[in-house]
Specification:
Blueprint (H helix, E strand, L loop, with lengths): L9 H7 L10 E7 L2 E7 L10 H21 L11 H7 L3 E5 L3 H13 L2 E6 L5 H9 L3 E4 L4 H9 L7 E2 L10 H24 L5 E5 L4 H13 L5 E7 L4 H8 L22 H10 L2 E5 L1 H13 L10 H7 L11 E6 L5
């Protein structure tokens, strides 16, 4: 790969210092499972946008604008000045384009709204109407493009021919920088958890990370391996219907897969992010798949424990509930991330 992955959690943390909607999300301990201690990082209302994706899309928009200002003006723009009237007027010439299964588009649209840029989001016909409505409320132009996420990505690729900024949360050969910024935003989640575990000296032995294209799983894995003083076993979790990272790991190279539509809508991605695969292939310990039924059961379990999420948001827990093949020892401490609120 012709790109070296480098993520620095201090960069998004600096930006978030000036963001009034930022606060750390809860890290909850809920009912133990078969003598396994369970922690849940609750991302269901991150920054009022309903998912962890808020950290990636907003940060990537802001960071891109800061980079462009420096390129055009030869000077660094302090983060706080992004909301100054003069800078907001300048930002309005930019249009960000992306494909999304919902949450990434909402984050990009929110970033564009905050800094007075423009935004177009391509979504598949299978994406729930609730996401369409949230996107339009944020001022995005929303276009229904195809039946699958992959169809909407093709549409987005064909929609940045007039100097629009393609802001994807996946990466491929020759396209790395912006998805890397998205992933850099996500590292804040791992840093928030590190602070709690360090303070309480109560580190997890196993971390379960759900994956679509793999951006969240890869950014969490990077930050955990880099900065956590006690290292857990890291398990990547995908739907049976879309095991692109599982199959890529098995083959030793990034590969696409085919399969039916999964109820884990934001994870139903048939081709991995190249950056994410390269990192996870090297640093993750296990790759497992879960069924839609497993994920529904996990979402119901979390709901009973007052964490309202979707099958996608509960996929990490689904791997624990169906964990016979993982052989998790008794008295382990497992960590999952509830990645989104109920749709």
């Amino acid at each position: 790969m012709d790109y070296k992955l480098s993520l620095n959690v201090q960069c998004p943390l600096e930006l978030l210092e000036v963001c009034p909607s930022y606060k750390q999300t809860p890290l909850l301990e809920i009912s133990p499972l078969n003598n396994i201690r369970l922690f849940v990082k609750d991302e269901t209302n991150r920054m009022g946008l309903g998912s962890f994706k808020a950290l990636g899309g907003i940060y990537a928009v802001a960071k891109y604008l800061l980079e462009q200002w420096q390129e055009e003006n030869g000077s660094q723009l302090p983060v706080r000045q992004l909301i100054d009237p003069q800078v907001r007027s300048w930002s309005n010439k930019f249009t960000f384009v992306c494909a999304s299964a919902g949450n990434h588009g909402i984050a990009v649209a929110k970033g564009a709204e905050l800094f007075n840029a423009n935004c177009r989001v391509h979504i598949a016909h299978s994406v729930p109407t609730s996401f369409f409505q949230k996107l339009t409320t944020l001022g995005a132009v929303v276009i229904r493009s195809g039946e699958t996420y992959e169809d909407s990505m093709v549409a987005a690729l064909n929609d940045n021919l007039n100097a629009e900024v393609l802001l994807a949360d996946s990466s491929w050969a020759g396209y790395y920088h912006l998805p890397m910024l998205v992933m850099e935003g996500y590292t804040v989640i791992a840093e928030e958890m590190r602070q709690v575990f360090l303070r309480e000296d109560n580190w997890p032995t196993h971390v379960f990370l759900q994956a679509g294209v793999g951006g969240l799983a890869a950014s969490m894995t990077f930050e955990i391996r880099k900065n956590w003083i006690k290292q857990p076993r890291i398990i990547v979790v995908e739907p049976n219907a879309a095991p692109c990272l599982f199959e890529s790991h098995k083959l030793g190279r990034a590969t696409s897969v085919s399969g039916p539509i999964s109820s884990m809508g934001r994870l139903d991605c048939k081709e991995p992010s190249l950056i994410a695969f390269k990192l996870l292939n090297e640093l993750a310990d296990d790759f497992v798949c879960v069924s839609d039924d497993d994920a529904n059961t996990a979402a119901n379990f979390l709901a009973q424990n007052k964490v309202a999420t979707t099958p996608s948001g509960a996929a990490g827990l689904a791997a624990i509930l169906s964990s016979a093949k993982l052989n998790i020892p008794e008295h382990s401490t497992c960590l999952v991330i509830a990645t989104e609120g109920g749709v």
